[in-house]
Specification:
It comes from Salinihabitans flavidus. This is Integrase core domain-containing protein. With about 50 residues, this protein is low in regular secondary structure. Helix content is about 10%, strand content about 0%. The chain has one helix and no strands. The longest helix has 6 residues.
Length: about 50
């Protein structure tokens, strides 16, 4: 993991500095995703025949 070298896409901050300046709000992920009754997620691939 790059902890030393600043990166241009992070405005020349190290990834660690960039992350520290943006606190992550874990509460937004605390609740599981709910699907409407009778719904199921679409399959990723077709079943083999």
């Amino acid at each position: 993991y790059n902890r030393e070298r600043p990166h241009s896409s992070l405005k020349y901050q190290t990834p660690e500095e960039f992350a520290a300046a943006r606190p992550f709000d874990k509460t937004q992920w605390a609740q599981p995703l709910e699907l409407p009754d009778g719904s199921a997620p679409a399959p990723i691939a077709r079943a083999a025949e």
